[in-house]
Amino acid sequence: xxxxxxxxxxxxxxxxxxxxxxxxxxxxxxxxxxxxxxxxxxxxxxxxxxxxxxxxxxxxxxxxxxxxxxxxxxxxxxxxxxxxxxxxxxxxxxxxxxxxxxxxxxxxxxxxxxxxxxxxxxxxxxxxxxxxxxxxxxxxxxxxxxxxxxxxxxxxx
Amino acid sequence: xxxxxxxxxxxxxxxxxxxxxxxxxxxxxxxxxxxxxxxxxxxxxxxxxxxxxxxxxxxxxxxxxxxxxxxxxxxxxxxxxxxxxxxxxxxxxxxxxxxxxxxxxxxxxxxxxxxxxxxxx
Lengths: 157, 121
Prior knowledge:
Oligomer: heterodimer
Distance between the termini of chain B: 33 Å
Helix content of chain B: 40-55%
Order of helices and strands of chain A: HEEHEEHEEHE
Largest interface: A-B, 78 and 74 residues
Shape of chain A: globular
Strand content of chain B: 5-15%
Strand order of the largest sheet of chain B: 1-2-3
Number of helices of chain A: 4
Order of helices and strands of chain B: HEHEHEHH
Number of strands of chain A: 7
Structural class of chain B: mainly alpha
Largest sheet of chain A: 5 strands, mixed
Strand content of chain A: 15-25%
Number of helices of chain B: 5
Structural class of chain A: alpha/beta
Radius of gyration of chain B: 19 Å
């Protein structure tokens, strides 16, 4: 499956070691993986999107905390400058290349997907795994349950 | 991202991750993953390439419906370019940038220390 895909963990270890960091980052690792099969047709499902990009305003840029946006208000762009992505090889000028809100809106109109949830979520990546596990993920889960979300597309840059 | 997917899935919400860092996502362990071998930054398709974008979203929705077990990864058929230099260039470390990287690290540590000091005031 991986063929000649980039080994990002190894690349990252060497990169930060070269920057003078003594300890390398420890990526999350699990033996067990949860699985919930889809219980109903997509045409009846409520969908949300979760991204690592942030709303494109100065307030949230500085704050870098979990944010929610309204699905009905499709943003022109999201803030990606501080994230780790390949700024030499590509760009994020086209929202549709990393945040599929228009694509999913079309799927709803076409009848292939039930409906979009009220909100999408922007999860900061600068925090620790503990921040994600104990605060951001539970907060997203709570909101998803309140909005009867059935499926989530997670798009990390 | 993977940790969020796992918690949602544990609570009955079906998830699919779209991305390009297959080693990190699979190391974490997630229910469903659409892997596109692109430079990091465009997990939903090439910029302004609607056909690729539609195809990747279709594959993600298909995976939500058809996956029967956890750790199901589907590789999309798209390639970024015939030129594979981007794979070597990302986070490259060699003699040409070693000093520059060390300087970046030092500046970053100083900035972090300043931030910490500010927060502790």
